[in-house]
Specification:
Layout (H helix, E strand, L loop, with lengths): L8 E4 L2 E4 L5 E7 L14 H14 L3 E5 L13 H18 L4 E4 L3 H10 L3 E4 L6 H10 L3 E4 L18 H19 L6 E4 L8 H9 L1 H5 L6 E2 L5 H8 L13 H14 L3 E4 L2 H15 L4
Parallel strand pairs: 3-4, 3-10, 4-5, 5-6, 6-7, 7-8, 9-10
Antiparallel strand pairs: 1-2
Length: about 290
């Protein structure tokens, strides 16, 4: 991990993210009734705030709040009004008692705008800011953006996994083109984070290839976020291999720990996880090995 990032640090909500010094942890808050990971909070604001409080105490650097499941196998589109109804009370309640940076996990510009107004800081968009209005919103508000790679929609993405054997090349091309659009909209380079989209329009073998070749993506010069937590390919590997039926999400914690460790070894700057306390310990040990001189 010696290649130079475009920015050595990012200032958000009074916090400094110093890329390369350590791995940062993003805790997942799913305000949905249908999260694949079995951690749905629904519309229980008190429970969401309690979980946020526990995540921060356990070491979370960012909380990622989402109101629409993007599970490719068991999810349906959610209207703007319903998604905002789910996320805004949680954002406001957390903001009332904590200054932890918040991320809004949405592909809808209207939801992102409302969330930023309510106190969120980052925009985490699974479409990679495909909507020009989302790019304009990020530029206007100065919100850092997480550009994720995917194809299609959550309902169609797993029929779109054919990259002709050129997965990493396709990711590099996508990120170069999308970053150019984001920069042209007025977003500052230091506010761009890239996410290769583990599990989004990628099969199990492709997820492993991304983890094995992260260094090539890091050459783009932007911080990398990896979301491997409780993913299906982890569940299959824990069960015995990619051809096996996956174990349930709650049985994927140790497998997630292995994937998180390898993501850090490959150059990940942020890991997005469900099991914050356990992965905080994983990060401490992995960072001590990977970044011993920092």
């Amino acid at each position: 991990m010696t290649n130079k990032l475009i920015s050595d640090n990012l200032e958000v909500a009074g916090r400094r993210f110093e890329w390369g010094r350590r791995t940062y942890l993003m805790g997942i808050l799913n305000t949905t009734p249908d999260s694949f990971a079995g951690d749905s909070l629904g519309d229980d604001v008190e429970r969401a705030v309690a979980q946020a409080r526990a995540f921060v105490a356990a070491g979370a650097d960012i909380l990622d709040i989402g109101g629409e499941s993007t599970n490719p196998y068991h999810s349906a589109p959610v209207a703007v009004e319903e998604e905002t109804r789910r996320v805004l009370p949680v954002i406001r309640a957390i903001r009332d008692e904590s200054d932890v940076p918040l991320s809004i996990d949405t592909r809808k510009t209207q939801v992102a705008a409302a969330a930023l107004d309510a106190g969120a800081h980052f925009i985490n968009d699974i479409t990679g800011l495909a909507d020009p209005a989302m790019r304009e919103l990020a530029a206007r508000t100065g919100a850092p953006v997480i550009i994720m790679h995917s194809r299609g929609t959550p309902q169609t993405m797993m029929t779109m996994t054919d990259y002709g054997g050129q997965l990493i090349e396709a990711l590099l091309k996508f990120f170069r083109e999308r970053v150019a659009l984001v920069l042209a909209a007025g977003v500052q380079p230091a506010k761009i984070i890239l996410d290769p989209g583990i599990g989004f329009a990628k099969d199990g073998a492709q997820n492993l290839e991304i983890l094995q070749r992260l260094a090539e993506l890091r050459e783009l010069g932007y911080p990398l976020l990896l979301g491997v937590s409780r993913k299906g390919f982890v569940g299959r590997l824990v069960a015995g291999g990619l051809a096996h039926e996956p174990v349930p999400p709650q049985q994927r914690i140790f497998g997630t720990a292995a994937a998180v460790t390898m993501a850090i070894a490959g150059g990940a700057d942020i890991v997005r996880v469900h099991d914050v306390a356990a992965m905080t310990d994983v990060i401490k040990v992995a960072d001590a090995i990977v970044r011993p001189l920092v």
